[in-house]
Amino acid sequence: MKKRHLKTVIFIVIAYGVPWLSSLGIRNDNIATAFLSCMAVFPSLGVIIGELVVDKKKVNAFHICFFLSGLLMLLCIGMHWNGFKAEVMEQVVGNLFTVLSLVLLLYCSLYEKGKLYPLGGGKKLFLLLGGSMLFLIITLVVMERNESMEYYSSLMMIIPSLCFYIMPYLGEEYAWRGTLQPAFQKKFGKRRGVLLLGVVWELWHACLWIPVFHFDKCGMSIVKAESIRMAVVIALGIMLGWLYMKVQNVWLCAMVHGLYNYCQCGDGLKCSASTTSHIGWIVFGVLCFCLLLTKEFRVEKYTESIQIERMKAFEENS
After folding, report:
1. Which of 2, 46, 238, 317 has the fewest CB atoms within 10 Å, counting from its CB?
2. How many other CB atoms are there within 10 angstroms of residue 16's CB atom?
3. DSSP H helical segments within the chain, as ranges?
4. Phi, psi (5° rounding) for residue 24?
């Protein structure tokens, strides 16, 4: 078996197999938030194990943080089956993730370069982060609902807060954007690669469609409900993919992913027909798909030479 095929098999088993099998242990909604946080680290864990087994990389603090995060899945399921309340599970998972997030931030700031360096991209990083925050607030908050000024003020503090809880989002983005996106774009082209990755990304959530998202109780067919969610996830994937192509920084993608989840106030955990009719979602989707027309997507072929040149440029500017 070729190395890349072996890494693909390892990724599928770890990223898809473990969460899907673990989801069979969900008996009610009290585990939803904690389970989702734990599940989010498995895509990156699948990439990491593939690198360690196939590429023979040395184990470092980055890897250890994800291994420890993966063990939280077993702890979470065990607490769920022993009748622990949602608040207790969320507190345990949240506290452990906070410690691991800080360790990860410190390690990557001191020892990592390229896509794992938190400040990679320089000034452009902060401009993109600020612009993304403004875009999400306008489309998913202002156009969605009339919140109080206190709520809008709290949005200003979400960036520092995410630094203490970046583990789940980095767990997804290191895999989907940092590893799979370049591979998909190299094989299928820039546009088709990011679109196909969006489909693969949403299929990863399939184990949550019934036990957590409750597509069977949302007042529409499961096919229609998933089609709507698929379109939204693909749109988000385009946005995150565009950001990664701009600065080659998975921390930026993780922060924007966290911002998105916060701004949409947990609608992703529910299946509400009303949320699909709001103008905010329509504007969000249309603008995200418009990013496919930008210069980052104009060159259809995604070559390794372009990737290497960009990485060197950002390392020099960091």
Report:
1. 2
2. 18
3. 3-11, 18-23, 32-39, 42-54, 61-81, 86-111, 123-136, 149-155, 158-163, 167-175, 181-188, 190-204, 222-247, 250-263, 279-290, 304-317
4. -65, -20
